[in-house]
Every structure is written in C-alpha cells, then in structure tokens.
## 1
Amino acid sequence: MKKLYFVIALALVLTGNTSAQKKKPVQAPPVKPRNEFIAELLAKMTIEEKIGQLNLVSIGFDVTGPIVSKNVEEKVQKGQVGGVFNTFTPVAVRKLQQMAVEKTRLKIPLLFGYDVVHGHRTIFPIPLGLSATWDLKAIEQSARVAGDEASADGLNWVFSPMVDIARDPRWGRIAEGSGEDPFLGSRVAEAMVRGYQGNDLKADNTVMACVKHFALYGGASAGRDYNPVEMGERTMREVYLPPYKAAIDAGAGSVMSSFNDIDGVPVGASRRMLTDLLRSEWNFKGLLASDYTSLSELIPHGVAANEAEAAALALIAGNDMDMVSEIYINHLPALVKEGKVSEQAITDACRRVLEAKYDLGLFEDPYRYVNEKRAAATLMKAEYRNIARDIARRSFVLLKNNNVLPLKKSGSIALVGPLANNKRDMIGNWSGAGDWKQAVSVSDGLKTAFGSAVVINYAKGCNITNDAQMLARLNAHGGEIAAETRGEDELIREAVEVAKRSDVVVAVVGESQGMTGEAASRADIGLPGRQLDLLKALKATGKPLVIVLINGRPMTLPWENENADAILVTWFAGTEAGNAIADVLTGAYNPAGKLTNTWPQHVGQVPLFYNHKATGRPFNGEQLDKYKSRYMDLSNEPLFPFGFGLSYTTFSYGDVRLDRTKLAGDATVAVRCTVTNTGKMDGEEVVQLYVRDVTGSVTRPVKELKGFQKILLKAGESREVLFEIKRSDLAFWNIDMKLVIEPGLFHVFVGGNSRDVKKAEFSVE
Ligand code: BGC
C-alpha cells in the first residue's frame, strides 16, 4: 500500500515540479494510522537506515560551531540523513527532498529545520524585546507569522522557542529568551509554541517547534557562554525548568538538549535530565535533538575519551538526533555490534524521528512545504511588515522622560550616534533569513514620520566600538561595520556642532547585534567604545538629550539615567525598527513595554534579580549597621527593577483588596485593585501581581510574579483589575523536594513594576 503510494508520488513528482507546487495532486490515500504505519516502516529498516534517521546535518551557510557537515547530498542519497538545517527556499528544499524520496530505498522524507528565532524573513524584535511587550497575543502572532513564512519557504521545523531563564546580562544569549521570570517565561513559551504549531501540525502553514536549550543553559556561570551550571535542585525546578515544561505541555513537538554541564554532567550525557526528567517525569513523547556538535563535545568536556564513547553516552542519555557531530552515523553501527548500545535504543530514537515526520504530514506529501507560489505571496508581505512594526513599538520600554518625549513636530533634531543611520543592526542576531537591507533605519523612520515639518541634522558621533579586535571579530561574523577613517575626537566634535544648531538631541547608541547572541558574552555591559564620551559632550551643549538604546541585554547606564532627559529601550527591533521607533518618538504610539530583567547599576551586582531570597541579614537602609547583606561601595538597588517601564501618561494604583483573608479548601483569593490613568493621554499599563510566602520549610523568594494583565485606559479612566489566586499557584518544592502548599501567611502585591507595589495579606489554612 505504502509502496504504491510512493510509486504514485514519485510519478507525480517526475511529471514536473507542478505536482509538488500544487498541494492536492500528490496526496495519495492517507497513510495508515501512525503506530501501524511506523511499526511497518521500522520493521523494514536496517540498523544503518535507522541510524541514518538520527543524523541531523547542516547544509547551507550558517555555521554556529567549529565544523560544517560534509558531503550532505551524497549522504542524503545513501539514506544517512534524517534531517537538515540551514537550507531553505522551495527550490533548495525540493532538490534535497527529491534526493531523499527518490534515491533512497525506503524513500523517507527529510526534516528541514532552521533557526527561526524572532521571525523568518520579516524580522520581529529579538525575543527579549518580544517578552517586554507582556502581550501574549502579540507574541503568539509573531510566531504565527514566522511559522507561515518559514513553512512557505520550505521549512517544517524551527529551532525555537528559546526559553532559557537568564539572570546574568553578561551572557549574550539573554537576548534570545524572555528574561528572568519563570511565570512570564512560561506564558511566552506556550504562546510561541501555539503560534508555530497552530492546531494542526500537518497544515502546510505550520511548523514543528523545538524548545531549547534543555536544560538550564541560561545559568552559565559568570555569564560566559557554554560555561558549566552550578545550581541546586530547588532553583532548577522553581526558576529554570518551568518554561521548558510549559512549552512541552503546550504540545511542542521537539526539544533541543543543551551544551552545558550541570553539576559535573554535560547535558548531552545526562540520563537524569534527558530521560528521567524529560521523558519519565514529564512524559515528553516528542523528538529530542542535540545542539550543534554538542555530542562530540562530550570529549572536551572530559566525560568521553573518544567519539565512540561519546556516541554511546549520548544515545543512552536519550538524545535522538545528533546535530552535526556525526558520531552516531560513524560509531553506532559498531557500538551495536559490540553490544555497547542496544538496537532497541536506536529503534526508539528512530521511531521518534519518524513520528515527527508523520505528524508533519511528510509521509503523505513530502513536498507539503514546497510551494513557490505560496512563498511569493507570503514572504515579507506588507501585512506582515505592518504586524512587525506594531509589535516592535509595543516592545519598547521608556525608562525615563523629563517631558521631552514625544518630540515636537516642528523645529530641528540632532540625530546622532553610531546606530542612528544603521540598518544591519536593526534586525539583530539570529535573523539568518532576514535581509537587513530591507530594514528601516531610525534616520529613515524619522524622516518618513516628520516629512518636511522637522529639520533632521545627522552626525555619526563615534564608532560603535574602538576595540580593533572586537571590530574584527564582529565583522568576521556578518557585522557589516564600516571602518571610519576620521578620528573619534573629530566625530564627536562634529556631533556637538550639529547638536548646537538643533533644538533637541536624539542619540541612537547601544550595542552592535554581534555583541549579543551566541558566543557573545561581555564582561562590561555599559555602552561600548566612545559612546559615553559622545553623550557627555552632547549633554554639555545644554540641549535636551534623548537616548534611543539599541540593545540585546540589560545594560549599565548610571550616568545616562542621571543625565539624559529621556531613555527609550528599543532592543534590536527587527525589519520595521526605524518606523516603530519613530511611532514612539513622535507620540503616534504611547509606549507600554516593561523590562523582563532587572537592570543593575553596576556589573558587579550581577546576578541581580527581583525574585531573590531575603538572607538572614537583609539590609534595611541603616547605613551604619555593618553586618548586613550589602556592598560597601554600592547600594543593593537595581537601576531599574523587573517589570519597570514608563508611559507618556501616568497611572495610579488604589489599595489592594482581597475577598478573604483566609484561604481554605478549593477556594481562591480574589485580588482587586483599581488602576487609574491620571495623565492626559490614553495608554496601556501592565498590571502585575506578586506573592510572597512569608515562612516555609525552605526559604522563599521575596516576591514572585503570579499574574499580569495588560490593560488600555483612556485618559482619566479607572478600571478595577481582578486576579484570582488558586492554591496551586502557591505550591513550591519543600524541604523534602515535594511540590506542596504549606499553610501560613502570604503577602500579595499589585503594581506597575516589581518595586512600586501596594500590599495586602492572607493566610492559607
Ligand atoms: C545554537 C542553537 C541553534 C543551533 C543550530 C547552536 O549553536 O546553540 O541555538 O539552534 O546552533 O543553528
């Protein structure tokens, strides 16, 4: 039956590409039910063919590790490849897929994966920016658009969402996640999975999600990428694991195991993480792929002496697919013969690869995602650019505003800074299929918004970095940073001249995209190069100073906060960055984003996060009280707390009212708070609910986010916001590592950020 289908499909394919372009004609009678179909297929497979399915190779241009896969086409035709990544477009995908379904004995189609991290062709803000919208519908929509574009471009699998909790802004990959909070991170993870996968993985416009990097990758010590993670089990379960679990419970089809070592065991070799936790405890049934060469990296980690040992460890730990190392394909056949790994383990891993392909509908139609017409009609369509613009402006966080924003619609602006007239950096990192040349610079966005009403005087002001080695490294990996021949003092002087003849200064400063993302940790998280000198020189002109920050991490900005008149955080905002920034600077959109990380005053405070423990000696402000948990040379306070962000209007919070002070049985606590827009503009506010469990069998965080609502209030309008706290919301891992709710006193806080809150309390019986 299946054979017949393949003959029909093959004939249709060979009669011309049109068969692959039009969806329907290829549809053979639907394949058998999943279990039956896969059992029959597995029964026909040789051990080599099964191992071939476990091989995930890169063919294309993006290299994120030391090696690139070799002879991919040849291997595909020999049935030695189960999936490829870094290849897209219907033409390129069809070519490889044809090799798989026409040249191999069992005609098993390939998976086509790619790092679609914040948009595919139409680029959205980096994930950290997306999280700052606190708008789950918008986040889901960004993933839906990305999934539609990716699938129109031949892909069926995206290496996203990245849900690693990160508390250390030195870590470059903080840009790729949703910040420091497990509750928010979990909601974002679910929204992304829904957006990519929709309700039907078989539909030609949905793709399989891959939750990464399992697990705890964001806990890299000292914020240095690939560094080991030292973490107690309770922190792991309460803070770092929930987003992976949430994504899996939302139905994510696949998971990627991470590079890092956890307490002495690299995840690639960790049966505890990959099998006991992920499979047995969480009941994850999907596909588990390794990260890029992470399996052969078990050798430098020091837990395997050679590739064969690494392959055995990795398979036994639970990795189904080997990304790029090719140690499975090279060593598993002999390992089975030697009895060092069981054939059953290979069959189980292969089954999961085949199940993913089945679920994606690839056995019914291997060309399901190969359709030039759909690609032409879908990729970067105007509607998607508009959505990207709207979501970008929602991601911006206003940190300070002395009434200088929105800008006046007359007079003149000095537009300065190394990122003011820049397109490359706008789309950020992990935007491989994005075309930065189609991105909108801040300069172009402002010119379009103001037309001839405002004179814009431009000067670059300084370089993004003056570290020659850093520059060389950035440019070696697509930095596109032009070398400036004029000296920096001259550039600053020119910017000062421009500022003097303008009414207001808009300084677009920050990081280059390559300073964040993978392998892009920074020890100093302030403005790189001479940018601070530039700002100081601009400040000295006495002109109002607006900072537009382009960034992929929390940054230390104490001088900037003290001296600038306004600071707007805009991340790497994507294809429509410049237009979205102009929307906010002109007041066409009132900013409402909120930080999803705590921003430190100084890198020496790192890791600094809001949901910390109290310690036995909390500092209470008594300066001469020596023996308290504090620094001698700096306060404990962050520069900006988690959840913080201003608006062009203001909000006031009424008292927090509870419908009961004792929680018993299955009841819930209703928490009410009236929020009023006390300013003159309509605006959105993210109302946040935090809880503190005052006494437990183990120490509990001083605050934990348990709910949030983003509401739109007209100028002068008041609204009562209602949250329900369920008993299960109060559960934690107790002294015996059991998930329990312990009776006692709880504090409830409601506010517009994690610091400025109103409080009430109740007790659990
Ligand atoms: C990264 C992953 C990515 C993979 C494939 C790795 O270096 O850690 O996030 O999905 O490369 O490009």
## 2
Amino acid sequence: MKKLNRGVAIVGAGMSKFGAFPGRATRDLFVDAFTEMQGSVDKGVDVNDIEAIFIGNYSSDLFEGQGHTAPFMTDAVGLTPRPATRCEDACASSSAALRSGIMAIASGMYDMVLVGGIEKMTDLPTSEVTDTLATASDALYDVPAGYTFPGFYASIATAYMDKYGATPESWMSVGIKNHNSGSLNPKAQFGQRIIDIMADKKKGAEKKGKPIPTWADEMEFMHDPRANLIIAWPMRLFDCSPVSDGAATLLLVSEDIAKNFSDNAMYILGSGQASDVTLRYRSDLTTLSSAKAAAQQAYEQAGVTPQDIKVAEVHDCFTVAEVVATEDLGFFKAGQGFEAAEEGITSLRGPRPINSSGGLKSKGHPVGASGAGQVVEVWKQMRGEAGERQLEGDIDIGLTHNVGGTGESCFVHIFGRK
Ligand code: COA
C-alpha cells in the first residue's frame, strides 16, 4: 500500500441527532451537524477557509424527490461558490466522501475540506423505503427475484448458522448489546435498552387494560413474535437497523496546518476500499471479501494490526453483519465472532468493545450519513468525550468499517494520534 502523499487530519466533527424528524428539512439536519462540527474545533476555525465539500448521500432523489444534494447542503451552510460533490456508494456513501476528501488533501489540491453525510428516509412509508434501498442491489436479477435487504442479510445469517452453529439467540445478543450502548448515546435514535422497551410495553398494556405480557427477561421478550416481529427469518425487528434521518460532518485539513486548529487532532492512518460481485455469485456468504480487502489495505497503510485497534465502529445494518465484520476485520477467527458477542467480549465493558455508539442498530442508520457518523464516535472516544459510554484506557487508535449493499462496496478507515 502506498502512503498518503501528505498527511491528513480531522480537526472537527459533529452530527445531528439521528431519528425520525417529520417537521425538519434535510438541510436543517445538515446545519445541526455543521454547527456542532464548527464548535468542536479546539482553537476555532473560519469556515470561509473551507475550499471544497464532499457529501455522502445515497438517494435523496427517491427518498425526498431532491437530487443534486451537494450544492444544496453547501448553500445551507453558506459555502457557495465552493466546489461541492455528491458521493454515492449506497450505505457507505459518506465513507466514499471521506475518502474523496482525504485524496483531495493528500494530492495537494486543497488544504481544508468539509466532508459530510446526509439522508432523510422517514418521509416515505416503510414499504417504499424498502424498495428504495433495494435499488442498491442488482436491479436486473435480485430485485425481480424478490430480494430486499432484510432478505439478503437473512441469507447471510442462515448460511452462517449452518456453517458455524450460531443460533437466533446469537443475533439477539448483538441487538441487546447495541441497544445497551445506544441508551448511553444522546444522539441515538433508540435511547432505550431492550429491557426498558419491554417494561414500557408492559406498562402500556396495563394502562390500556389489556393482559400484561409475562416476559421474565429480555430474551423471552425477544422470542415473542408479537414483540419482536420476524422480518426475514432469522432477522427479527430487533436485528434490523431502523429507518432514520440524520447528518454528520467532518473537517479535514492537511497535516502541516493541523496544529493551527487543535493539539489533539485525529489523523488518517489508513484508508482502504474494495468492491465485490453481488451476493448470488459468491461461493461463501459468511464473509465479505471486500471488507477483508479494504481492511488489509487500511492496516497495511497504517502499519497497525487488528490488536492495536481500541475503538471500532462496524457496519451492523443487521445484527449478523456485526458478527461477520468482527471476523473480516481480524478481531476474531472465522466462526468465532458469534460466541464473542454471546459471551460479552464485544460489549461496552468487554475486552474488545464493538460499536460503543450503539451502532447502526440503535444509534440509527440514515444510510448516506452512517459512515461519517461512525467517524464522529471514534473522534469522541479518542478525545475522551464520549460521556457515560467512554471506553476505558488510552483510546489511541480507532477504526470504521462501512459497507455498501451486502459488500459490493466496503470502506475501512483507521485513525490515530501523532
Ligand atoms: N429496531 C427496533 N425497533 C424498531 C425498529 C428497529 N429497526 N424499527 C421500528 N421499530 C419500532 C418502532 O419504534 C415502533 O415502536 P412502537 O410501536 O413502540 O412505537 C415499532 O417498531 C413499529 O415501527 P414501524 O416504523 O411501524 O416499523 P416498520 O414495521 O414499518 O419497520 C423494519 C420495521 C424493521 C421493517 C424497518 O425498520 C426496516 O426496514 N429496517 C431495515 C432498514 C434497512 O434495510 N436499512 C439498510 C440496511 S442495508
């Protein structure tokens, strides 16, 4: 792997709350993220020094009837007439924007670049969201065959269960874990642990004078098909990331000027990207070869190993995806990731915490913003600003893993201090 021609640092990061915001325009969420980013720059920044903008957005055209997203977001934060480019790689769109920003600075073309991500999905009913997301799969063959994203990941889950002996409870343990972490994240769509959701449902039944469900614990709740609907077996409601609105932004500068903005900047150590054929052509559904290839590139460029990573935000669009990611990234051997989740190894206070933000499952998955949102969590953890979910120890190296589709595209980024 070639090194970057010159170093790139992140000196500011911010995100809107993720969730459903029916009364708010997409650009309002972008302004929220931008304003928080601006306030996060330790020594302050004149945003008029931003030279170019790269925005990740999957499909505002279909979600909102609004194409050409980048200049509209750029206008919303008063940055026209600077060059503004939209980047699209399905659910990895804002990682594509990040990589574009990195390359723009590393090439020497710009010294300061704004990277963002944005998606507003909740204006459509779920059935139309499902159809819109399905356009990220093979429209010639997969869509007419009836495949949806829950269906794709259900195929991955059943193949994994068959090969390695995981069970539906394995996936449930990931959902419980990520809701636990998300409950400590004020920006998360679901600010509740599953046990709290269960308690609320009981209270709701009591209030309405209906029979009070007798679930003894969260696992019993998760097994109840009325509480935890089967979406595409074995993926149930609490295995799925939600339909979300949200935005995130990052401020990138060249390494030589980073100290003008912060003595605690986060540097890009490695950037990997790879692609793959659609799922039906793959000989093994239990791994994403694009994730492995992107990770290998990023580790090599950064000169670190999986053991060096202290904070990792991985693409858990469905619970099974988190388990597969932890194996593809080399945190666990193939077939051992599900046991690690079941045993609490990947929980917030476990030895290998994964998705301290709550992940896409609990924090939310506004698809075009998710990759940049992952970087915001790494930024907060590395600076010791993650509040109640702050990881223990010196968080000096972090990683994000962001998948487009079922791995037809994948990005892995590694961040560190200098
Ligand atoms: N996890 C947990 N709870 C969820 C949820 C999720 N993913 N999605 C919705 N809910 C909750 C809602 O908060 C609501 O709770 P309430 O009754 O207590 O108020 C309830 O479930 C019904 O919400 P609703 O919006 O009507 O759900 P839905 O049935 O329309 O949608 C899914 C549920 C799982 C189908 C939808 O979230 C989905 O499609 N997720 C996957 C998105 C996706 O594919 N992303 C891209 C990945 S590659």
